Amino acid sequence: MAKIIGHRGAAGIALENSAESIKAALHLPVEAIEIDARLTKDGHLVTIHDKDTGRVADKSLWVASSTLAELKALRLKNGERLLTIDEAVALIGKKKRIVLDLKSGAICTELIPLLRKYPKANIMLTSRNYRQLAKIRKAIPGIPFTARSYIYSTEIVHIAHTLGAAGIAVNKWVLNPLTYYLAKRAGLQIHTYTVNNPLLVALFSALYPDLHIITNHPERFADDKAPGR
Asked: Which residues of 137-152 are buried (b: 16+ CB within 10 A; e: fewer)?
């Protein structure tokens, strides 16, 4: 049966990557909650997808050029404050698996201590920066991760296998039967993003029964009536 992962919490219900969005996903029978991680100017990890805050906050600041204090001073468009990754992980705790999407390039130095701080949290990493994933895996051998791609279809399976990844994460338009077959043969999980259309969810669930579907609308699919369940 296809499994459902809440994208940026439950981004179709509440503002992405916010506490409200994460709490919404926590109340749903999802397999995992995906959130994004970026690095601030002063070396803190914050929960945001874009390089700047313009789309989600009342003021546009470049994350990599701003301090945590400057970013915390902003109001998100739902009235909340920007979460640090530490706060987001603490909020989710052991209730759900956390899929942490690494958006910044050089993130290892700050992320490794945080991962060690929460040894009992069920955290999986994902990124297109394979070098960073390899460095983190070397420091914390037990941490699972998926190699992410929105371009490569079959090559990503080889990349993931070479890196010792637990799986692949591919754009929904890249996913195809050959990729699925090769990944399954290699013992890899297959994640696809971001699938919000009910017809596509039904199709993917039928074609790829062991698929992990990342969606903005887990409330539509993460129940006993969801396609493929």
From this structure: beeeeebbbbbbbeeb
Of all residues in the chain, the percent with pLDDT exceeding 90 is 93
Nearest of 20, 131, 138, 163 to residue 78 by alpha carbon: 20
8 in a structural domain: yes
Contacts 24+ apart (CB under 8 A), 9-12: 9/33, 9/34, 9/35, 10/216, 10/217, 10/218, 10/219, 11/216, 12/196, 12/215, 12/216, 12/217, 12/218, 12/219, 12/220
Distance CA 26, CA 20 (A): 10
> What domain count does the chain have?
1
d(C-alpha 211, C-alpha 207), whole Å: 9
DSSP secondary structure string for all residues of 123-177: EEEEES-HHHHHHHHHHSTT--EEEEESS-SSHHHHHHHHHT-SEEEEETTT--H
Examine residue 227 and state whether it is found in any structural domain, yes or no: no
Residue 187 belongs to a domain with what CATH number?
3.20.20.190
**Which amino acid does the sequence have at 152?**
Y
Convert the pLDDT of each residue in 19-68 to its tens digit: 999 999 999 999 999 999 999 999 999 999 999 999 999 999 999 999 99
Q: What is the pTM of this model?
A: 0.95
Residues spanned by the domain of 214: 3-221
